[in-house]
């Protein structure tokens, strides 16, 4: 006799705690001021009118809706009009012609935002001209619940089958440890960063003073300060138009970068951060955001060091408790089909589940995968939560997001169904459950 | 039993053909012999017109190499000769829309729009005879036969000549510059080529319009001076003839010099060859063949083309193109495919790509890039696997002709088309059926060995 | 008194606990893995063994009780495919057939990696050689606990012999064994020598260090663990080690499309030990095939999972089972794959693999299902001794 029984009911693990207060507010183009290098960024958020504009109507009905920012609405409806979420709640009257998905028993989440990805577009080069939105890696990305992802310096949406709307934004952040502003992570290099930041700071000071004089029209022949040799990206950092990214793992460098951020007052996103748990309080005070991989097994502890070191799955939890905004990245941003399971983007939620095991509250983990990551990439006005007026990027699961058995049943991006488990070969044979076909609301007689 | 209209075969041995090769001169006019007795009534067992229509026991009236009438009740004009082909199924000569035979084995990349296929054409490639013997009467000669990327240039139309005791078998260029060919991959390079190409064309058009406007003003002033209403306009109207087939003067696309008066000549602004070739396509003088390898390429194509209305056919090379079949279908687009059952990407599940596109509403034509001997049987396999039989002949004839923009003259058995006919001794898609004879412009260019021995 | 070892800087000292004193663990659910789970169970431990388990185990006044009444208990996890105890020193590449070798000679006592594994519920491992040669050595079955003398941790020595049959050993271009045929010939040749040797010993002949263990293996006294993959490999392995040479065999890996040979294993009730690859993405049907799920579907019941550590970290053994379950293996089968079946496969199920009176007191207490990635390990007991206690050690492994 086989003894198959459900192990699901008995465990009441989900830790709850208050929603983490995100100290850092998304940095937007600064108001006023003289003309500086303009901030890269997305357009204005959609107005309600836009959300009400024409577009196909799709209702996701009866599921438990995890809005992320506005709690959980049991058995609620998400009404999508065109590319946007039009309404969320109970008792929403559905206009004639609305396509209705009956999602009772399922869970509805905002699409996940991956902070690091590789290969989802099936191409390299200028995204707009080379992306292959039919590439199977994109399909697998959707199967993992990912609807937006950083790819290189851009943030893309997995608009499978379409190029429209694929690029969400470009030029995310200023990296201090790779790319054109790279100074490396050693001491010497860091001093170079410091010198460049000083230069940028004094330029800003001189520029602002000049702008003030201009405003008062003190001297017509007054010229603006020269920007020669000034790192323009660093000017953006110091003006809070951009945030800095640094890939730093060990405690010494973490401390140094945190100090740098505090000294110059820019916002720093630390990627890697595997020893962050050993100086969580310091990082918390520096107001950094950390992108951690709980199972960063590439940094095994060195037993010869006389201090705590190496990775720990408690990293995310400890940083969170110290007030650090925490996001989670998988061990690999690609999707490997070699057979090793649960270590890359395909099981992004499992990495977060390890963070939960290590003490990160479940709701903080959910934020880390959604609105937190969106905020970090400066796209939180469009994606990362289920809210009226936001992009209709929605995933529907047959269980909890962090349960190892859960599968994404549907993924919508920009209001369009882009992935359906039962319609694709990849996973449809695993625990198959027939889903009712969507119905269409008929016009009232 | 055999077709009883020709006293003897013109077929020669391969060796004598080779020996005479040097004497052969490609002569486009050598086809339609303009003799009064070149009027035939061909009584057929079955005619598949290449447009989907099937006529049992019909007849074809051919005058001077051109089909004049097709139907059940064809009366022979006075002096016409009757051909008894009642044992045969007659179909239009097959059209190979993407041939590289006789073409330089060169690679091409970047914008090579000024290249003309006929400039590097070798007419005596033996493959032309192979093509003829399998019923191919029309081949598009593409510039740069191998591995072209970017914009490759303009194709020509060639027809096999067959061989006889005097001349070697081969092919002759019949029409020049019928179609622009280029690749459209999901790459910045390919997209930029097109973007820049369009930009340059638009610049050239603007300059031309400006020149015309100035010219007109000048003329008007001159007219006012002389108070004579005599005026000639430059041929600006040519630009408005969208969709018009190029006939044989396709290369006269550049704005022409005008001679309104002896002393005054309209000077059209100079345009480089690459731009003028693209201009010809943009204004519809000839179509383009766009070669794509992935479904995504189509999206990138749409992104570059935007609202422009262009004459195009698509050659699709990868099985994942099924993912955009509905978009081709909605647009009623013309797609050229290898006649083959493929597999869905990532699986071994069979996918009849031609049938898939056909069901989606696209016009499907076949390329013939494999051995000519196998072509008909490869099409037969696709038919067996679900491609509609009634569209199969069209997919080998009138559709590829339409892709080349020459379907008003080639590719079907209809009045006004050249009498390019293939006589089969059975259903062309039955494994045992053979090509018995092939007629090009009213002349028998091939008769099977069996016939020859008679 | 049998004091716990204090070996590393992070070592834990527990002078108060005497292994011989009775210990009672109270849990919300005990997954006994033989018989139904018991809710609100008490597990009584004495002398390193489980003495009683059930709802109504009487706890004497003053007895030592560990209250984990919101957590789950299950038998310690067993990994039959581990390389970390020999720290990479596992391949003697000189000769393809080495039945005279044993990993015992390469084992270390303890390390941070092992501590992490222990704190994650791994209580027993089969430490084996790599797959560079066909017969690489006899492995050692070890308890995962800090000891002063390695012998105190050994469950079985010699443990199973490691055979590499497919997908790795065949790279020895130019030697005997450049192809599967050559390798099979070599293995049969050595087996036949060992069998002839066994007959000679029975007839009163002398022993032979090279062949004694192999002879015992071929007579069913020592198990054999065979590294093999792909459908062809699975078929060859079952044919050789079940049909031609009846042995107590465990087929390890079975990766890539090995599951397509599952019927071979199912009809002969062969033990399968899957890992580190848990799925095959097939370009035949475009599907993600959970390898365990497919073996189970074909009727294989003796299923276990491995990490092939360090390929997958040793402490993620349970996660391998979670992934098997994600890909379609029923939950209970996935739990058995961590506990009962690996014990049974090596013939040590009389001591390990289930929570039953008389068995070794190796158990893992977790805050939820052991397969739930979110569930933290609370307590790990090996041979009745606490090797990890979250409350005491202050960490979540």
- Fraction in beta strands of chain A: 15-25%
User: DSSP helix count of chain A?
Assistant: 11
CATH second-level architecture of the domain at 287-393 in chain B: Alpha-Beta Barrel
Largest interface: A-C, 48 and 55 residues
CATH superfamily of the largest domain in chain A: Metal-dependent hydrolases
- What is the highest CATH level, the class of the largest domain in chain A? Alpha Beta
What is the percentage of strand-forming residues of chain B?
15-25%
Identify the notable features of this structure and list them briefly.
heterotrimer; B: 454 residues; alpha/beta; Urease, subunit C, domain 1; TIM Barrel; globular; C: 397 residues; 7-stranded mixed beta sheet; 10 helices; 19 strands; 23% helix; 26% strand
Topology at a glance:
The complex is a heterotrimer of chains A (445), B (454) and C (397).
Chain A: H1 48-51, E1 57-66, E2 72-81, E3 84-89, E4 99-102, E5 107-110, E6 112-114, H2 127-130, H3 136-143, E7 146-151, E8 154-157, E9 167-169, E10 174-175, H4 187-216, H5 232-238, E11 244-248, H6 251-264, E12 268-272, H7 280-285, E13 289-292, H8 315-321, E14 325-328, H9 348-357, H10 362-369, H11 371-376, E15 394-397, E16 408-413, E17 416-420, E18 439-440
Parallel strand pairs in A: 1-4, 1-5, 6-7, 10-11, 11-12, 12-13, 13-14
Antiparallel strand pairs in A: 1-2, 2-3, 4-18, 5-15, 7-8, 8-9, 15-16, 16-17
Helix pairs in contact in A: 4-5, 4-6, 9-10
Chain B: H1 14-19, E1 39-48, E2 54-56, E3 59-63, E4 66-71, E5 81-92, E6 94-99, H2 127-133, E7 136-141, E8 151-160, E9 171-183, H3 188-226, H4 273-282, E10 288-292, H5 295-305, E11 312-316, H6 325-330, E12 334-337, E13 341-343, E14 350-352, H7 353-360, E15 363-366, H8 372-384, H9 389-396, H10 398-403, E16 421-424, E17 435-440, E18 443-447, H11 449-453
Parallel strand pairs in B: 1-5, 6-7, 9-10, 10-11, 11-12, 12-15
Antiparallel strand pairs in B: 1-2, 1-3, 3-4, 5-16, 7-8, 8-9, 13-14, 16-17, 17-18
Chain C: E1 23-30, E2 38-46, E3 49-54, E4 64-75, E5 77-82, H1 112-119, E6 122-127, E7 135-138, E8 140-143, E9 154-156, E10 161-164, H2 180-202, H3 212-218, E11 224-229, H4 230-244, E12 249-255, H5 262-267, E13 271-274, E14 279-281, E15 288-290, H6 291-297, E16 303-305, H7 317-326, H8 331-336, H9 340-345, E17 363-366, E18 377-382, E19 385-389, H10 390-393
Parallel strand pairs in C: 1-4, 5-6, 10-11, 11-12, 12-13, 13-16
Antiparallel strand pairs in C: 1-2, 2-3, 4-17, 6-8, 7-10, 8-9, 14-15, 17-18, 18-19
Helix pairs in contact in C: 2-3
